[in-house]
Amino acid sequence: MTKPILQVEQISLAFGGVKALTDVSFEVPTGSVFSIIGPNGAGKTSMLNCISGRYRPNQGRIHFDGRDVTKLKPNDRADLGIGRTFQNLALFGHMSVLDNIMVGRHHLMKNNWLTGPLYWASPAQKEELAHRREVEEIIDFLDITHVRKSVAGTLSYGLRKRVELARAMALKPKLILLDEPMAGMNLEEKEDMARYICDLNEEFGITVVMIEHDMGVVMDISHQVMVLDFGKKLITGLPEQVMQDEHVKRAYLGLEEDDIMQEAG
């Protein structure tokens, strides 16, 4: 069994009297694609926000790569290797594609306010060139070379999604959190994004935790699937096992008892 890179232990989260998550526990094996599915309002994005540090859970612990990160801030978790994309695009629309991606390298740069004024006479220039080379490799990997100098806000939705993925990759994460990476895409764009996710997982060795509503994609590229419903975990397992679970069929697929009995028959 692959050692887990992420361990979530009995996480509960509430906003006032509304419970977003209740006693949720799971493990994500290193090098896997782990999908979280469930109806709208099931707590999926709240879970990613707890893992990334945007939310502080009311109860429970989160361990990443053997370290308790429950109380760490988002930027500290990013330093440890947790990258993130968002359901709603969070790009700098007025900046170029290249500059947006370079933002993802910022925490890796050693240059500071002391060395900055000495840019041409310090290692800072070499450092920036090295970072730019790695960013160019990511741009090439995601097939966005033709728009690298374009203003991000002028791009199509599918291309902007790719730029956001590139920025998350630029952080050099061990774990990347993808919040509905294919939402709003047409079929061709979804196929491309699914391929990129598989490739970054297999070629770059990045573990993926993904929220996605397209069940065809989930079934095709996931190693494990967890189902949330009203903030509670229903089941975790292999995709084909999860989709055969009766509770999942009722809660997620909307099948009634008669439908399930008819399938069984």
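(ticket continues) Second input and output from the same batch:
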Amino acid sequence: MTGTAWSWPGALVGLTVGIGLLLVVRGLPMRRRADLNARLEPYVRDSPRPSRLLVSDVADLQVHRALAPGLHRLGAIVGQVLGGSASVRRRLERAGQPTDVEGFRAQQALWGVVAGIIGTVLMSLRWLSNGTSLGGALAVVSISVCIGVVARDQMLSRAASQREQRILAEFPSVAEMLALAVTAGEGAAAALDRVARLSSGELSGELQRCLADARAGATLPEALQGLADRTGISSLARFVDGVVVAVERGTPLADVMRAQAQDARDASKQQLIEEGGKREITMMIPVVFLVLPVTILFAIYPGLSELRLSL
């Protein structure tokens, strides 16, 4: 084993140890300085701080506090490189998660660090087995970090899409219940309150948030419009527009609700038909590429055997 082969793993281990010692020194109690938020929080906090005896896992809490500043700094770097904070905030709202862009960037940084550590371990094992170059190792580690960051972003997009699908599945039933409640003589706010209390799911949670906004001072049309903006679903937006117009102009709400519920049912049927068409095309893949070749093989093989025997 030459000195060149030992140079970059030794440098990597030394760099890791140096960074660890630096973090330990910076985390010592005598080197900590309370920022302005930490000094003012005890005087402006609404509720008293909970006792540490009530925390389920104190070790996890200490680890989180130790890693949070570094992760937020790395998250800020990720945000500067990638950008798109408005898109991230919109997808967080669609996924039903807190619209904390900085926290999400910190999670992306954490995923990138974990993926980079995994890439470093794999390249170290490869170096121990048959050796590898420093450039290739750095490229693999960099690609691993990028994969971790992008994977967290794709996971958020998938969570938003799945939540939209659940809301679309719940929407026709909720629209029917609202139409029945309004037809029975209740107002729009009372019908929303009843349906939100009697139902469960993602759309029920959005209705409860809509009612909370209305109770906090917003008008019912503004609260409903906020619901449509948060979800970003076209069919739900049309339903909200119909209800808002009926409330503002004094149109009979029962007729509007029944018409909107019927439209929701029709949209759900259309979506099922489209999904069935896509599944039908998907089902042709095993038929064409698996069943059909085997069938042709069984049909041609006896003839080929007879021709071979005759020759």
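Agent notes: The domain at 166-268 is CATH 1.20.81 (Receptor-associated Protein). The chain is about 85% helix and 0% strand. Closing as not reproducible unless the customer responds.
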